[in-house]
Amino acid sequence: MNKQYTKTTNSLRDEKTSGFSSGTEIRPTICSICNPGSHCGVDAYVKNGRIINLYISNGVKTRDGEFMQSCSWSEMAPRVGEDKHPVWCRFIPEAHSMMVPFQIRSQKPYPIRAMLAFGLNHRMWPGSDFARESFKKLDFLVDVDLFMTDTAKLADVVLPACSSYERSELKFYPEKRILWTRPAIEPLGQSRSDADIIFDLAETLAPDDDLLRSGHEASVDWILKPSGFKVADLKQYPRGLVVKDVSIPPYRKYEKKGFKTPSGKMEFTSRVLVDYGLDSLPVYREPVLSPVSAPEKAKDFPLILTTGARLPFFIHSRAYRIPRLRRLQPDPMADLNPADARKRDLSQGDWALLSTSRGAVRVRANLTETVSPGVVNIYHGRPEADVNTLIDPDYRDPISGFPAFKSLLCEMKKTSDENKRRKLEHP
């Protein structure tokens, strides 16, 4: 991607199509989405809510929490997904990313009409085609990314982000070391760091927030104030500053402070789950889609499909577009046990259709004993074989709301035309 600010052919819809009328008072809502493939998190804030979480401390006292969230939850609009997954929202200080496509469509409990996203990837959602079409319904979408991804192509405005080699970052290390990194090179083209983009946007989005408007380094100074350090101090130590007289969080701190439970003790039954009318003890239930719970569906889709495993050279799905790495696995592959392959007349490298009740993708068969008989494993995020299109958008755990990526029903069948052609080309 040529790192320049780019506008797509989409433009902010006019008054007629947006549903806004002149003089309408719009309650500002900022929805900042991080990649759900890495954390499944969405931070939704209104008013003067901070929109970034930059730093994790190693015992050095900071004001990171106060910077990240300057308003209490009670002062904000309900978090996305709070009504469907209240247990998640009770424990996790974020909204629920899996519910964003649904709220875009339903506009309840309030509309999401514009979105600022960093590294947005629709293929990380179950029913990724559903997520993609949901994002297209927004009046205005801004995406910040290093690459012009398929998701970035949906945006009205794309802002090029620079890599960690091109920006400074504040780092805390367990060895009581603080480091303000120095970029190895200047940002390429017009690319900029996420932080610089955010603080520049604050000039317009938060004009009354003097701290945000003061800029990145000044805000880091504010965060670090309890420690007595400033960015200017840390710049004098390119290898990091070793901090003395810092108390590392104690081992077995529960002995003095107890546990983070309603009683402060280790609870064998969850009082929190009871509050929401759920079983207080772990109870095993079959997945909604399994040969046991869905025997009729299993007649057509007898194999269990699991996704989400990693190929380290692809770093989740980030490196599929890099030719040198893609040569390590040029085509999408699905792992299945040799016993299951023999039943389907599949040989190593054969093209096959991997299907669920929602759709199918073309993959090559990879025969391996690393998966059990009756199981198929496929790596996620490949544009030409997006396995998440095979998953229903609302197929989620009812408590956490996490997608059931590990418990689906599928079938694999050889695509004979492709394999006949391959044998002719490579006798």
Report the β-strand fraction as a percent range: 15-25%
Report on the biggest sheet. 7 strands, mixed
Q: Could you say which structural class the secondary elements and strand pairing correspond to?
A: alpha/beta
Which word captures the global form? globular
Name the CATH architecture of the largest domain.
Answer: 3-Layer(aba) Sandwich
Mean pLDDT: 83
> Which fold name is given in CATH as the topology of the largest domain?
Rossmann fold
Which CATH C-level class of the largest domain is it? Alpha Beta
Number of beta strands: 16
Number of helices: 15
Q: Report how far the terminal alpha carbons are from each other.
A: 39 Å
Measured on Cα atoms, how large is the radius of gyration?
25 Å
Identify low-pLDDT runs: 1-56, 423-427
Indicate the percent of residues in helices.
10-25%
Strand order of the largest sheet: 1-7-6-5-2-3-4
Overall number of structural domains = 2
Structure, explained:
The structure is a single chain. This protein has helices at residues 15-18, 64-68, 86-91, 100-106, 128-136, 194-205, 210-213, 216-224, 231-234, 254-257, 271-275, 295-300, 323-326, 338-343, 416-425; strands at 6-7, 29-33, 41-46, 95-96, 114-118, 140-145, 157-160, 170-173, 177-180, 241-242, 303-307, 333-336, 351-356, 359-367, 375-378, 408-414. Residues 1-56 and 423-427 have low confidence and may be disordered. The protein has 2 domains: 6-242, Rossmann fold (3-Layer(aba) Sandwich); 295-425, Barwin-like endoglucanases (Beta Barrel). The chain is globular, with a radius of gyration of 25 Å. Helix content is 22%, strand content 18%. The strands form 3 sheets. Strands 1-7-6-5-2-3-4 form a 7-stranded mixed sheet, with no helix packed on it. It has a 6-stranded mixed barrel with strand order 11-15-12-14-13-16. With 427 residues, it is α/β, with parallel strands linked by helices.
